[in-house]
Amino acid sequence: MSAPGPAARKPPKKRRRSKDKGPLRQWAEFALALSALALVRGLPYWACRALAAAAGEAIFWLAPRRRRVARLNLRIAFPGMDEGERSRTARASCRSFVLTGLEGVKFLYRYDAEKARAYALRMVEGAEELLGRARALHDEARGCVFVTPHLGNWEFLLHAAALAGIPLVTVVRPLDNARLEKYLFGMRAGSGQEVLSKREALFHLRTALRRGRSVAILADQHAGKRGMEVPFFGRPASTTTAPAALAVHFQRPIVLAACLRRGGGLGHRARLGEPLWPDPAADSLAEIARLTAALNAQMEGFIRQAPEQYLWIHDRWKLLRGRGGSGQA
Questions:
Q1: Are residues 240 and 287 in the same domain?
Q2: CB of 130 within 8 A of CB of 270?
Q3: CA 306 to the chain's CA centroid
Q4: What is the pTM of this model?
Q5: Which domain holds residue 64?
């Protein structure tokens, strides 16, 4: 008897999300998360770095699909990098990703007071100048489309911008656990920014820009069929057109920002790209394509400054589509 063909095989079972598992499971997850948050807040920063190093190494070695994605991504982005350096960069990327989360838990919950603003300005090299420029751009344009990649500590910068007095609406990924989502959204909003789930984002982003507020978007992940194929590190990648479409529709500048960690020890350095202004006389679709490509090019420049702090485990080019995700790379 021949083996069943692809059509005869049963589709893999989908992972049930926590919101599908009943209130008891959600409450248990919520309680566990609160306990973990309290634990991390009590740790000294050196312990957070050590924990991030251990957890990042675990992600790299125990998640073969993510390891493979990271190495394949780095082959595209840095073809001149040898395999050993790619592995070291991928491992450092995993550690950086975990540290971003731990830094958020440890520091961002403070950001509801003037002391937090002073702390942010002290900890981020160049923050005062950068936030002053960002505020001036916001005032000049009556709202900006701020974009940040998954590089360094993207959460830190968004909170600091809101503390600097920029009325900011931020879009974040929704969580499966509604209770945990509400709690974390509230923690993020402590600095004064309005935090929205992607489920409801577009309408509210348009409303915010119409009212003279700025918006912040993470715009460096695979955008699926709705995205535009635009070069990213020399290879076409499905890229969201949301920042460019908003910029063209409301005639607002796109401003790329990043918050990179300084080498060793505590502290960050802020970076702000040249504003990308839409041309009011240009064809809208052509202008959206131009701005999207220009934004990707700026992101490349930022990532090249600290490739070990970028989220390489995301399958940006969908390199493993239709392939097995395990195995060596």
A1: yes
A2: yes
A3: 15
A4: 0.85
A5: 23-105
- Looking up tokens 């950086």 gives 96
Say whether both 276 and 243 belong to one domain.
Answer: yes
Q: What are phi and psi of 196, to 5 degrees?
A: -120, 150
Residues 32 and 57 in one domain: yes
**In a domain? residue 129:** yes
Instruction: Report how far apart, in Å, the C-alpha atoms of 36 and of each of 175, 280, 327 are.
Output: 17, 50, 32
Strands 228-232 and 235-239: antiparallel
Please classify residue 171 by burial: count the beta carbons closer than 10 Å to its beta carbon, then call 0-12 exposed, 13-18 middle and 19+ buried: buried
Residue type, 70: A
276 DSSP assignment: B
Whether 278 and 173 share a structural domain: yes
Residue 326: inside a domain, yes or no?
A: no
Task: Express each pLDDT in 73-96 by its tens digit.
Answer: 999 999 999 999 999 999 999 999
Q: Tell me the mean pLDDT in the region 158-184.
A: 79
